[in-house]
Amino acid sequence: MSVEIKEPTLDSTPRKAQDPEDQAMYDEYFAKGGKVTIVDTNARTESYSNNPWQRSKGRPKEKK
Length: 64
What we know:
Elements: H1 20-31
């Protein structure tokens, strides 16, 4: 038995804010041509550390 793993799909239905002020700001942003950016879920920063107790490598030592 093989289980097929599906990629998550984005729901494109517009959301409504709870606060009318927030909704007015959203409407203004999109009216000016604002777009929603979708970031790749596998994208990572080079210097990202999963372990909060691990120290970073620091600066490279100067060679004499």
